[in-house]
Amino acid sequence: MRTYFGKLVYIVRVVEFQYRGLPHAHIVLKVLPELLFAFIDVTIMARIPNDPELADVRSKVLKYNMHSKDHLKKLRNRCNKKGKCAFGFPFDLATTTSLDSNGRVIYRRDTEDDRYVAS
Length: 119
Ligand SMILES: [Zn+2]
Fold this sequence. Notes:
Layout: H1 2-5, E1 7-16, E2 24-32, H2 37-43, H3 55-64, E3 80-81, E4 84-85, E5 98-99, E6 105-106
Antiparallel strand pairs: 1-2, 3-4, 5-6
Zinc ion (ZN) is lined by residues 67, 71, 79, 85, 87, 89.
């Protein structure tokens, strides 16, 4: 990883094991020189892969990484907070990855279905 991304300055990671779905990790790292967003777009995805070579990844994303589109239909859904999703779904479409004014990542999302991919 050090040579792929550049010089690693620091890394913070937490692996979560939840009741449903796959274990997953939250990783924050700083590398030098800073990465271009175009490089991040091909390394980290919040999209449903269309590449036939990634068919296995596609099926896992569709099975484990999708937020329900019906999330606001039931008042008792855990994400439904007064008619608004507590987790921010659906996310806005974005042609490239960027940062918002608070430094949070806005991932590239190309299609309507990508708006429901957990990241
Ligand atoms: Zn929701």
